[in-house]
Specification:
single chain, mainly beta, 6% helix
């Protein structure tokens, strides 16, 4: 529950802060048809000039948060709703039950538990290696990233992130489009520059799972990849549209 707090609650009241969060974002195009099937009513993919879906997959290591440390990976798709542009979040995995519950309850994220690994060591040849399996042994995502240059924050395209909170509620169904709320600040290095690096990225989501359809976002081409380190705080957000059936 986020409306009250007791020692029995799974997580604390908002805002929910994160410190030293590392995220790698892969900007790519994917076929729009399969991804459109994951969109709620009234949300349509905002296509590229070639007719593809513009997407990002983000792989994340959160070493400190009020949910505890955890890994996460998700896919966002550029969409339109009532003339406004958003990033829609239809696919997301984590490896901890606390952020899973918070994500589902606060924003309606379709979070599931998965097995994840983030490596950057002598064995990964200078690259970050991130993998996600669900169930264990079924590899659904492999991502690599090698930083090559410091980037400017203006290179990143920002849109509000939106999700579909669809719940079976007492007396009927609650169905809402929810925009993520919160604040964010990139870390800065000793020279005062933002800790944002561009680099070479590869992304494989070709393994097909009808239960966890990350393969619907299989990249046609990866355009850019960025690593960043930031502090941010999440808030419950705002309702963009109420799709609940009329009683």
């Amino acid at each position: 529950m986020i409306s009250q707090y007791s020692q029995a609650d799974l997580y604390s009241r908002p805002p929910w802060p994160f410190r030293g969060a590392e995220q790698i974002s892969f900007v790519f195009d994917a076929h729009a048809e399969g991804l459109q099937a994951l969109m709620p009513p009234g949300v349509t993919i905002d296509p590229t000039p070639e007719g593809y879906a513009r997407c990002e997959t983000r792989v994340c290591w959160y070493p400190w948060s009020t949910f505890g440390p955890f890994h996460e990976t998700y896919v966002i798709v550029r969409v339109q709703h009532r003339g406004d542009v958003y990033w829609m979040l239809p696919l997301i995995m984590t490896d901890s039950d606390v952020p899973l519950a918070a994500g589902r309850e606060a924003w309606g994220y379709a979070k599931k538990l998965a097995v994840m690994d983030w490596q950057w060591n002598a064995q990964t040849a200078g690259q970050v290696l991130f993998t996600m399996e669900r169930p264990a042994g079924q590899r659904l995502l492999t991502a690599t990233f090698r930083p090559t240059r410091q980037a400017d924050p203006s290179e990143r395209q920002g849109h509000p992130v939106m999700s579909h909170r669809h719940l079976a509620a007492a007396g009927g169904v609650s169905s809402q489009l929810v925009a993520l709320g919160g604040t964010k600040a990139l870390h800065k290095d000793a020279a005062g520059k933002a800790q944002l690096w561009a680099g070479e990225g590869s992304l494989d989501m070709s393994s097909v799972s009808s239960v966890d359809p990350f393969s619907l976002a299989r990249p046609i081409r990866v355009h850019q990849a960025f690593w960043q380190c930031s502090d941010f705080a999440l808030a419950p957000g705002r309702v963009v549209d109420d799709l609940s059936p009329t009683p």
